[in-house]
Automatic annotation (TrEMBL):
<feature type="region of interest" description="Disordered">
    <location>
        <begin position="20"/>
        <end position="56"/>
    </location>
</feature>
<protein>
    <recommendedName>
        <fullName>BTB domain-containing protein</fullName>
    </recommendedName>
</protein>
<feature type="compositionally biased region" description="Basic and acidic residues">
    <location>
        <begin position="20"/>
        <end position="37"/>
    </location>
</feature>
C-alpha cells in the first residue's frame, strides 16, 4: 500500500420452516438502559448504540504508521489509523468525526473515533478503506476473482449505510460492468453468481439490469452444464427467481434421471438426492417430474391442432388434419423419441419436430403451408413450455 498521498477520486476535502408471524406475547420487551459513565454516555449520544468495550487489535493493513495517518478509528474490535480528511467523502462520518475532535481532540488509540451507526462489519470497513487508498488504475481494473467481487459487495453495502456519493457511483458502474463481462460470467464460480444476485436483490429498483444479466448468464451456464444446478436452485428459491427456478430444477430433474437413479432387482427406482437440498426442494423436484411426464403424455396421445394454411381449402384441410394426426402418432413411437426421458419435454418436442420435418410421408400428404404451420406450432409450444418451466415446480397445492 502506498504511504504517500495517492491520487484518489473519493476524497472531498471540505427451505427450512419459516414462521411468517408471531404472537405479540412472544416479542421480547425492550431492555432497560444500562447505566454508563459520562464519557461513555457522550459517545453513545454521538454514535448511537456502539459497543466500545473489550479488547482491540490493530488492523494489519490499514493501521498506517506514516506521518499522514493522524486518525484512529475503531470498528468493533479493530483499530484503523488513517488520514482524517479521508472520511470527508462521507458527510455522516465526517460530521461525527468533527464532533469527536471538538470534544476530545484528534482520535488516538486511547480515545479512538467510534465508527457511527449503522455499524459496518470489519470486512465492509476494510473494503471501504481499500477504495479510498486505491489508485485510479486499481479502481479501473475489472473484477477477476470472487474475492474482488466480495470486496465490491462490501463497498456497496457500506454505501447503503453511509452516503458516499462518488464511491457509490463507481461501485454501481463496476457492478454493471461485472454482470455484463462475458468472460467473467462464463468462468466465475456459483458463489460469485450467487453474490451478484444477492447484491442486485438488495436494491432491485437500482440494480434490476444487473439482476437480469446475472440470471440470464446463470441460466445459460446451467443449460450448458458449465455450472452445477444445485447452487442455482438454492439462490433461485431464496430470491424467488422464476426463470432460474425453472431452468435449474428442470436440468436437475434430467440429471437425476440420467445419473442419480438406480433400480432394485424387482425394478423399483431408487433416487439418490443431493444432500444440499432440503425437503421442500426434493418435493418440488418430484412433483415437477410428475408434472413434466404428465404434460408429455397428454401431447403424445393428443396431437396439436394443425393450423390451416392460406392456400388450403376447408375440405382439403380436413384431409391435412387427418394425415397430420396419423403421422404425429407414428412419430412419437419412433426409437429416437422413445430413447428420451418422458420428463424431458423440451428434448421430446424438439425431437418430434425434427422427425416430422424430415417425414417424407408428411410432406406428400399435407399442403406445404399447413405442414409449415404445424411445425411452427410445435416450435411455439416448446418455447412456451420453456418459458413456463417454473410452473411445474411449485410442489403440491
Amino acid at each position: 500500500m502506498p504511504t504517500a498521498t495517492p491520487s484518489r477520486i473519493f476524497i472531498i476535502l471540505d427451505d427450512s420452516t419459516v414462521r411468517e408471524a408471531r404472537d405479540r406475547q412472544e416479542e421480547k420487551r425492550p431492555n432497560k438502559r444500562v447505566r454508563v459513565d459520562s464519557d461513555e454516555e457522550d459517545a453513545q449520544d454521538s454514535y448511537g448504540s456502539h459497543n466500545a468495550k473489550g479488547p482491540v487489535e490493530r488492523d494489519p493493513v490499514y493501521f498506517k504508521e506514516d506521518e499522514l495517518a493522524n486518525c484512529v478509528v475503531r470498528v468493533r474490535g479493530w483499530l484503523f489509523k488513517i488520514q482524517a480528511d479521508m472520511l470527508s467523502c462521507s458527510p455522516t462520518m465526517n460530521s461525527y468525526l468533527q464532533d469527536h475532535i471538538r470534544r476530545y481532540g484528534m482520535p488516538t488509540e486511547e480515545k479512538p473515533f467510534l465508527c457511527p451507526n449503522p455499524l459496518p462489519t470489519v470486512d465492509e470497513y476494510r473494503a471501504f478503506l481499500w477504495a479510498l487508498y486505491a489508485t485510479f488504475d486499481e479502481l479501473s481494473e475489472p473484477i477477476h476473482t470472487n474475492e474482488e467481487l466480495e470486496r465490491l459487495s462490501h463497498i456497496i453495502t457500506i454505501n447503503k449505510k453511509f452516503d458516499i456519493p462518488k464511491m457509490h457511483d463507481w461501485a454501481v458502474e463496476m457492478l454493471h460492468k461485472t454482470a455484463n463481462n462475458h468472460v467473467f460470467m462464463q468462468s466465475c464460480s456459483s458463489a460469485s453468481l450467487a453474490l451478484l444476485v444477492d447484491t442486485a436483490k438488495s436494491n432491485h429498483k437500482k440494480y434490476g439490469k444487473v439482476l437480469d444479466a446475472t440470471v440470464k448468464a446463470w441460466c445459460n451456464r446451467v443449460w450448458d452444464k458449465t455450472t452445477p444446478s444445485v447452487p442455482a436452485m438454492q439462490t433461485a428459491d431464496k430470491h424467488d427467481l422464476p426463470e432460474l427456478v425453472g431452468t435449474a430444477y428442470y436440468v436437475h430433474v434430467q440429471d437425476m434421471h440420467d445419473r442419480q437413479t438406480s433400480f432394485t432387482e424387482r425394478g423399483a427406482a431408487k433416487i439418490r438426492v443431493d444432500l444440499k437440498l432440503n425437503n421442500g426442494q426434493v418435493m418440488r423436484l418430484l412433483t415437477g417430474y410428475w408434472s413434466l411426464v404428465s404434460l408429455w403424455e397428454r401431447h403424445r396421445v393428443k396431437p396439436l391442432e394443425l393450423p390451416k394454411g392460406k392456400s388450403c381449402s376447408d375440405k382439403k384441410h380436413i384431409e391435412c388434419m387427418a394425415n397430420w394426426n396419423r403421422r404425429w402418432i407414428s412419430a412419437v413411437g419412433w426409437r429416437r423419441i422413445l430413447d428420451l426421458s418422458s420428463a424431458d419435454i423440451l428434448g421430446l418436442l424438439e425431437c418430434l419436430r425434427d422427425q416430422l420435418l424430415n417425414d417424407d410421408d408428411l410432406k406428400a400428404a399435407l399442403e406445404p403451408e399447413c405442414r409449415l404451420a404445424g411445425l411452427e406450432a410445435i416450435r411455439a409450444l416448446r418455447t412456451k413450455t420453456k418459458e413456463g418451466l417454473a410452473d411445474h415446480f411449485f410442489a403440491c397445492v
